[in-house]
Amino acid sequence: MRLNSFTYRSPRTEKTAEELDKKVEYDLDSEDEEFLATYNNENKKPLSDDLCERLIDALEKEYFKQVGILNIHYTILSIIDRSFDPHRD
Predict the structure, then answer these.
(1) 89 residues of the chain, pLDDT tens digit each
(2) Is 84 exposed, middle or buried (0-12, 13-18, 19+ CB in 10 A)?
(3) Mind spelling out the 3-state secondary structure of the chain?
(4) How many C-beta atoms surround the C-beta of residue 52 within 10 A?
């Protein structure tokens, strides 16, 4: 879309949160592969590389969501605490 002779607006390339949640971003490294091989040798129900990547990816995404929520709560509590500080300027 041409806005004027100096600017150009490209199509949206950023992904939504839902799109990012669906995409598996985790990639097993050699240490993960060693762990998975040991796990699969010791268990009757082995995990595939793909399933292991999806599990770790889901855990990481949920962890970062929870950390974000905790940071928001901490910030709110800090603001409330400062507003009631009798030694405040």
Answers:
(1) 444 444 445 566 676 767 766 789 999 999 999 999 999 999 999 999 999 999 999 999 998 888 888 888 878 888 887 777 666 55
(2) exposed
(3) CECCCCCECCCCCCCCHHHHHHCCCCCCCHHHHHHHHHHHHHCCCCCCHHHHHHHHHHHHHHHHHHHHHHHHHHHHHHHHHHHCCCCCC
(4) 19
Distance CA(88)–CA(42), nearest Å, equals 61
Is the whole-model pTM more than 0.85?
Answer: no
